[in-house]
Specification:
The protein is of the alpha/beta class. It has 13 helices and 12 strands. 44% of the residues lie in helices and 15% in strands. It starts with a helix and ends in a 12-residue tail after the last strand.
């Protein structure tokens, strides 16, 4: 026999609403009542009927999370944060990975809409330049939250790091250490995060009256160790006197460090280096890598909390407007860039 909330309520002498709230751990239900109801549901082996719940509320209690990569410390932090926060509010998370493929991303969004998820969180693939599939989510009245890699042309809530400020902060830090010829190993041309960090780099040079030279900028489209390593070897052929480097990620920066060491440069005496992400490895290598912190835990919590806030407002109206929530950046100076503490 499949018991219902009504059956439980009648047996316990309480309302259906009280049973529902007790099982969902609402604060307005006393601990004693929660304990009594939960003990009874365990005794009778009660399991909520998800289909019946959907028919009643039109809510599946499912959230779709689409990531561009899985083997990535930052995205792992975000995923763990969202899943834990979601579970505490009785939501389950379906995690999908586009593997940096626009076509796969588009297909996954379609699949999530077919599952009637209550919301979709996505960090777009680096080559996504058509946003029809994202706008379809909004037309479907499904809450859409973009995070980290966002799209300004999509009218939705977006949670981001302040990548412009991060690029500016990293570059100005190198300038304050006495660097005047600063290389930027940037990301690909399309992602907004790459664009914003690049513009932050340029703004810092401009503020300190250092001429921008496009020859000192190299694109690392895959953000890999190998690209950082090769990028330095190619640049040093033309500019052996570079004295600073800001990389799009810690991994690219570590590749650059390897190349400079192999070429006989002393870090930070000859060249100061700073990355972006604050991956665990950045504090374990020698010299320790200066970086800009990218807090995945904070971002994941903000994404989930923003979704919950939408559930308590006019979600349809709120998700059809461009809103930008910013996670502040933080400079973490370490040995790789510290030519002198006096200039900080």
């Amino acid at each position: 026999m499949n018991l219902t909330l009504k059956d439980i309520a009648q047996a316990m002498g309480v309302s259906v609403t009280t049973v529902s709230k007790a099982l969902k751990d609402y604060k307005d239900i006393s601990p004693e009542t929660k304990t009594r109801i939960r003990a009874y549901t365990e005794k009778v082996n009660f399991r909520p009927n998800a289909h019946a719940s959907f028919l009643r509320t039109q809510k599946t209690r499912l959230i779709g999370l689409v990531l561009p990569r899985l083997k990535h410390d930052f995205f792992n932090e975000i995923t763990e944060s969202i899943i834990c926060y979601a579970a505490s509010h009785d939501y389950k998370v379906i995690v999908l990975c586009s593997e940096e493929s626009y076509e796969k991303e588009k297909s996954q969004i379609k699949e999530l809409l077919q599952l009637n998820v209550d919301g979709i969180f996505i960090s777009v693939a680096k080559n996504t330049n058509d946003y029809t599939h994202l706008k379809q989510v909004i037309k479907n009245n499904t809450p859409l939250i973009l995070f980290d890699r966002t799209v300004k042309l999509v009218p939705s809530l977006q949670v981001v790091n302040d990548d412009f400020e991060a690029g500016f902060m990293a570059t100005e830090h190198l300038i304050k250490q006495g660097c005047k010829k600063i290389v930027h190993l940037r990301g690909d041309l399309i992602p907004q995060i790459s664009i914003d960090r690049f513009f932050g780099y340029k703004k810092a040079l401009e503020k300190h009256n250092i001429p921008f030279k496009k020859e000192l900028v190299t694109i690392c489209s895959e953000n890999t160790f190998e690209e950082g390593y090769k990028g330095v070897f190619n640049l040093i052929k033309k500019f052996p006197d570079v004295d600073g480097l800001f990389a799009i990620t810690d991994l690219v920066a570590i590749g650059a460090m390897g190349a400079f060491k192999e070429l006989g440069y002393q870090i930070p005496k000859d060249v100061a280096i700073i990355g972006y992400s604050n991956w665990l490895i950045s504090s374990l290598i020698t010299p320790k890598l200066s970086t800009i912190e990218q807090n995945g835990n904070k971002m994941g919590k903000q994404v989930m909390q923003s979704f919950l806030d939408l559930q308590n407002t006019d979600g349809e109206m709120a998700t059809s407007k461009y809103q930008r929530l910013i996670i502040p950046s933080r400079l973490i100076p370490r040995t790789s860039s510290m030519k002198t503490t006096e200039l900080l």
